[in-house]
Amino acid sequence: MDRNRKRRVRLIVATSAAILLAGALAYTSFSAASDAKDPSQLAASAVAGRSYQLTGKVAPGYRRQGDVLLFRVQDRHGPGSVLVRYTGAVPDPFRAGREVIVTVRKDGTGFTGEKDSLVTKCPSKYTAAPSTRAT
Amino acid sequence: MLNLGRAALSLALLIAVYGIAASLYGARSGRRRWVDSGRRSVYALAATLTVAFVVLEAAFVRSDFSFAVVASHSSTTTPTFYRAAAMWSSQEGSLLLWVWLLSLWSSLVLFLTRQRLREVVPYATAVLLGFAGFFAALVVFLANPFALANPVPAEGTGLQPLLRHPSMMIHPPLLYSGYTLFTVPFAFAVGALVARRVDAEWIRATRRFALAAWLFLGVGILIGARWSWSELGWGGYWAWDPVENASLMPWLTGTAFIHSIMMQEKRGMMKVWNASLVLATGVLAILGTFLVRSGILESIHAFGGSTLGKPFLALIAALMVGSVALVASRRAELRSEARLESLLSRESMFVLNNVVLVGLCFVIFWGTFFPLISEAVSGQKASVGPPWFDRYTVPLAIALVLLSGLGPVIAWRRATPANVVRTLRGPLVVATAIAAAALLLGVAARPWALAMFGAGAFAAAVAVQEFWRGARARRSATGEPAPAALVGLVRRNRRRYGGYLVHIGMAVIFVGVAASSAFQGVHDVRLSPGQSAHIDGYDVRYRRATSALSNEKVTLGAVLDVSRNGRHVATLAPTRGYYASLDTRLGPVGRFFDGEATSEVGLRAGLRRDFWTAVQPDVGAMQSMIDGLDKRFPLATGRTEGLLLAALAARYEVAPPPASFRLIVSPLVEWIWLGGAIAALGGLIALWPAAALARRRATVLSRVRLGRQPSHA
Questions:
Q1: CA atoms within 13 A on the CB side of B141
Q2: ipTM
Q3: Which residues are B547's β-sheet partners?
Q4: For testing the chain A interface, which of B373, B383, B553, B583 should be mutated: the one with the most A CBs within 10 Å?
Q5: Which SS3 state, helix, strand or coil, does residue B2 take?
Q6: Tens of pLDDT along B543-557?
Q7: Beta strand A81-86 with A110-113: parallel, antiparallel or unpaired?
Q8: DSSP conformation class of B147
Q9: Which of B4, B50, B58, B290 is most buried, judging by how many CB atoms fall within 10 Å of its CB?
Q10: Is B410 helix (H, G, I), strand (E, B) or coil?
Q11: 3-state secondary structure of B619
């Protein structure tokens, strides 16, 4: 096989492999993804059995019942909220008013959080406290 | 002092603008004086930004709450050690740190290249100053760290307790050093392309900066992971968060670049690839900074309410369009001087290594930006989790480790299969033995982990064999004793043997990651004092509850006895600290349990496994006592408040409610930090200028000086 033909074959093989891999990447990412929703979207359209990535702020009044943490996640800018029953690691910065991300499934009237899926905003990234006004 | 800081920032912005104009005018007109003036403006920029940096640092250390950023990120009760680091926990302070580091590295590279690359340096100076100008404009107009607090509070909010860890003193500066150092080869690549000087000289001039960027970024990432493992109460070290991924992506493409530039230096190959790779790395470094500050993706590390997304997006768009246009317009000059002669050659191994590294980067990029991709395609934001990332990154990582073993022993241009097999016989035996031992230990259920153990053993054995062969050859040539021959070998070729040490370190890291991911046991238990739990062969007994008081927190904890087969293994004392809230509406006791809380992990680290534990005291069970104390003594302060807290703490010790514990047994986690230290040592060795090279440079420099001063000759 002459050199040019050899190079062409290599190029075709490499390009085909890259296209196949990219296709697999795209397919698996769409099939494995969880829809990201805020509380009001979730309350309006959640389907039982499907998992969603819920993002919002922790509402005041959360409590523990044994190993279960019960808390409401509310919209960042709005009144909508949903109740989440969660077991697993609770990040240290978890508090009312903090932004959280948690993977949930619809369960009756509320939502069950996937174990250990609760994350809160990194503590270095909070906005400044409102008590000081910069000029 | 606020005015001094503001003036320094404004001056820095003016200097950057002037420097860009001077450098470009000097380059286009050929007037050397303007080019020198552009270079000196970088030194002036560094000096000016140092003033701004020192003013802000001094304000943090002195707790000067007239600075809004100090009032919102520090307090008088924050320990001095952490007050100094509080600066980069703020958006404004971290941007100042970014541009200050950039100005320092830019000054260093321009000083080192002041007699070299005359056509390239002016454009590189303009690019570096362009970055500096962009960040200076951000801190002047959008996130000024010298804003006045109005009214000036008597006390600051304080540094978030979770950040009070020694790692956090150096984690952000290391990451930012990595990001800013990657802009140096980026700028020189742009300069080389604009000036059409696309030989390997710009690579030689900036190779050490690329290596330093790789080293700083890598160590920064590992320190962040170590902090997460030993400080945060969730029991992990990597979460595939967008901002974590953003730091990994330029590190991966930077790793590819460090390898592929050898092909351009030695054989004049891969010029388009190298230029594209370094430009992509520079863009990814800015992308990392963008992700933290734009709020475009849901990330636990992103600044809330940031308004800096649009300027960053504009910068990234300009960088991408400019980079593609530049490479496309110079494709004739970037043509390779040699062709790949054989698939069994060092060049092929480098190409494969680059394909895997860039593939890894692409997978991570896709997963990170998938919420935006999915929204564009389906109108619905969706995200992928760690299992999706693992599905692709694990096999690619195994391939990478295998290639790091194959590459060093395959000859340049063309190798014969017989030679390769002969060289690899020893390492293959070691890898097979390790894999067999792992199988006997029951690893078969986790085939990916088994494959990684074999690949890691293979790569490490190849590197050790190279050290042994080189030392043996040197010993027979010089008659030196073995240790001296080994040291001499490394000193003579620091880049090569430093690189091998990095390969060993990376193999150790990957084995640690594979073992700790595949065989980690996580258990959540609820225990009262005297009760025990049996997990993964260990008996864990909750011996007693503990408490401690200080002027800013109440600490509740537990003492756990860990034993195995009746033998005492460790005594662990995890605690949880409750910091007082500044909310004056809360009671004197209750405010401690409505503020920030942090876990102090109980950790027994070992080379074979770590035993990790965190405690979550049931504060809810004490709520009636807390409410009662607040109701009876609503105005208690100072000593009275201390007495109330002491009563609560004593009650907790005597009659503690059941506490929740997370117990983790994780094998080989320490290998990750050990491997990181080995790789960092290798990186330092590769980075350090060789004695012979330093001598050659000194000779060249003295010749240059003698040439410029004939009367002294």
A1: 10
A2: 0.80
A3: B556
A4: B383
A5: helix
A6: 999 999 987 889 999
A7: parallel
A8: P
A9: B290
A10: coil
A11: helix
